[in-house]
Every structure is written in C-alpha cells, then in structure tokens.
Amino acid sequence: MPDMWRRLARLRVPLGFVAGVLVLWLARPTWSLLALGTVVACAGEGIRVWAAGHLEKSREVTGSGPYRWFRHPLYVGSALMGAGVAIAGNSPVAAAAISLYLAVTMTAAIRTEEAFLRAKFGPEYDAYCRGASRAPDRPFSVARVWRNREYRAVAGMGAVFAILAVKALLARG
User: Which domain holds residue 27?
Assistant: First the structure.
C-alpha cells in the first residue's frame, strides 16, 4: 500500500479540523437548512452509533448490526454527517470542501483499514467482503459504543451544529 494513503489516513483528524474551520467560516446557514441538515447528520450519527455498538475493533471481523448491509457503516454514517453539514452550511464552496475532504480521507482510511484487516484476518475478512461471513451475531451494546469512543463524534457534531446555529442567529441580526 502506498505510504501516501497511510499518511492521509493518519492525518484525517487534523485535516478535518482545518476543513471544519474553512467550512464553518464559509457557512451561511438558514434556520430551515439548519433543521434539514441536522436531521441528515443525526441519521448519519445514528448509523455510526449503531455500528460502534457492534464493533470489536481489531479483535475480530464484525458481521452484526449494520455490518450485515454495509462493509464500512462508520464511513456511511460519516458521509451522511458530512452531507448534513453541507446542507446546513448553505455554501457550495463549503459543500465542495466537505466532499473533497471525505472523498480523500475516507478512501485513505478504507484502503489502510482493509489492508490491515486482510493481513490480520485473511480468509475470514475476504469472506466478509464477499458477503459470506460467519462472524458472530451479537446484540447492540452501549458499552461498546463508549469503548469505541463514539461520544467524540457526537460531541463534534453537536459543536458544529451549535456554531452553525449561532451563525444563523447572528445573520438575522
């Protein structure tokens, strides 16, 4: 795997802060778009929480919950969250920045993650990719959500939408 993908995957959080500042600066939220964007982003965070409640990171190939339908449900949720911010931000340039950030960093993260999982779990991961996984089915667990630190994404999303709400309030001025 090219080092570029690994580097980008490792830099996705700092790059996310840079992209976030740019997006928040460019955003011109209205109350109706803020409401719609919040609904979309919450749906994305809901998928992420659901996935985190089934995931045992680096310990096994997970096949329960949303992992039955999506190979990368955390990234599906992140993409929806990004779409929600783009909608709420009401800025084509901000939406383009979000799209570029997600396309580049998620591609890097998926490539490095899949290489790691394939190296660690081999045929078991390949079976999962083909939809033939024998991974255990398990109930959702809030403790797993906490262990997977999904509260950070919830807090980040809350902060972004709070800033957008302040911008919408100030714009009414």
Answer: 3-172
As given in the structure block, the two tokens for residue 156 are 């980040």
Q: Length of the chain, please?
A: 173
Task: Give the integer Cα–Cα distance in Å for 157 and 173.
Answer: 25
CATH code of residue 105: 1.20.120
Helix (H/G/I), strand (E/B), else coil: 133:
coil
Report whether pLDDT(113) > 70.
yes
Please name which of 141, 132, 131, 117 lies closest in space to residue 60, comparing C-alpha atoms: 117
Distance, CA of 131 to CA of 67 (rounded, Å): 10
Residue 71 tokens, joined = 């190979």
C-beta separation of 20 from 160 below 8 A:
yes
0.90 exceeded by pTM? yes
Sign, CA dihedral 19-24-28-32, equals positive
- Confidence category of residue 134, pLDDT binned at 50, 70, 90: confident
SS3 helix, strand, coil % of the chain, rounded to 5? 75, 0, 25
Please return the burial class of 105, using the count of CB atoms within 10 Å of its CB with bins 0-12, 13-18 and 19+.
buried
- Answer whether 89's CB lies under 8 Å from 37's CB: yes
Give the rounded percent of residues in the chain with a pLDDT score beyond 70.
99
Q: What is the DSSP letter of 71?
A: S
